[in-house]
Amino acid sequence: MKFNFEATGVGSLPFTDPEKSCSFIFETFPDIPFWPQLPRRSFLENMYVQYAEGFPGLLVDEKNRAVSVDTVKAQREIERFYERYLERDIESFGIARDHAAGLFPFLETVRSGKARPPFVKGHITGPISFALSITDENKQPIIYHPELFECAVKLLTLKVVWQIRKLKSVSNNVIIFIDEPHLVSIGSGYINIDANQAKERLEELIAAIKAEDVVCGIHCCGNTDWPFLLSRPIDILNFDAYNFIKQFIIFDKDIKKFLARGGSVAWGIVPTSGDKETKSALTARLEDAITGLTKKGIDREMISSLVTPSCGVGTIDETTAAGILTMAREVSRGLMNPNRTA
After folding, report:
1. pTM of the full structure
2. CATH of domain 4-335
3. Is CB count within 10 Å lower at the N or C end of the chain?
């Protein structure tokens, strides 16, 4: 599958009205709309809390916006958790409406025929970021509790399968992005993460997604080990191209291998950091990067591309966020080849 610079978003929006959020998304991203995460509407839509429901020993303090795991309580609940997992009780691992208010009107809009997009996009927090962000009662990330880390991977695999099946009930063409901002920690001297363990856990989630016959991508908004990600069995790599495009394209050999096996690059070229840029400047920045790759022997027609903001916009004010998302659409339209379709 080759993409033609279609635009989409990462996931989070700063709005609080689910229906209006969905309307904005369908209008702005008619080719690849995504269901919106709305963290300002509720702490339950925080990207870690949103997928944590059902985790053994989970404690969510909405008032103080805190989430943790009581390890003693978790030990009492793990056996039942694994029973449900082994039973493949997908429905019991669903995402509740109060944890994803935008998902349900999104599904209804497509089901009703009010929108007929070529693709629909969902997302799931990745196991590394999830297990580094949720801590035990002593503020230690659960990634350092092997049994809890394993539970996290199992929980996320069933959550994403449930989500995929909901999306496939309204569209045959589903894209799922794994959001992994903490992959920047691989190789870091500040956080001790075993790269082989990260690979295994990440690939377990990727395998669960691919088994559902959908397109699987990874989003990482920091500078990470790009060869590590490019060699994973994913279909799309989405990254902050505005800030890290030079660091990315130096790995041209790895990029070429990724593209040769059918991979696509989702260029997060529109900054979410507050930088003021024009459509022409962003387009030129992206064109320069693609030209750089062609000069290293990568055929331009081989480069399957999408356009996105550099990250989610859930923490940005509404007006600025709308401008960022609209800019992504405009850059996309300027780059699309009218003679080429996905």
Report:
1. 0.94
2. 3.20.20.210
3. N
How far is it, in rounded angstroms, from Cα 67 to Cα 255? 38
Q: Is the pLDDT of residue 322 over 90?
A: yes
CA pair distance 72, 250, nearest whole angstrom: 47
Structure tokens at 88: 């493949």
Q: What are the structural domain ranges in the chain?
A: 4-335
58-61: strand order across its sheet: 58-61, 66-69, 135-136
Point out which residues pair with 238 in neighbouring strands: 219, 266
Q: What is the largest CA-CA distance in the chain?
A: 60
Q: Which of 261, 262, 208, 271 is nearest to 239 (CA)?
A: 271
Token pair 């994913």 is found at: 234
DSSP character at residue 145: S
Edge-to-edge strands of the sheet including 304-309? 4-7, 304-309, 264-270, 236-239, 215-220, 174-179, 120-125
Q: What is the pLDDT, as a whole number, of residue 342?
A: 47
Q: What is the mean pLDDT of the chain?
A: 94
Q: Which of 72, 69, 68, 74 has the alpha carbon at shortest distance from 56?
A: 74
Residue 87 exposed, middle or buried by CB count within 10 Å (0-12, 13-18, 19+):
exposed
pLDDT at 194: 76
Q: Are 8 and 31 in contact (CB under 8 A)?
A: yes
d(CA 148, CA 293): 42
Burial of 85 (0-12, 13-18, 19+ CB in 10 A): middle
- What digits encode the pLDDT tens for the residues 45-90? 999 999 999 999 999 999 999 999 999 999 999 999 999 999 998 9
Closest CA to 313 of 38, 57, 4, 14: 14
Question: Do 156 and 55 touch, CB atoms closer than 8 A?
Answer: no
d(CA 272, CA 275): 7
Q: With CA atoms as reference, report the closest residue to 10 among 279, 164, 219.
A: 219
Alpha carbon separation from 79 to 73, 94, 174, 284 (Å, rounded): 12, 19, 33, 55
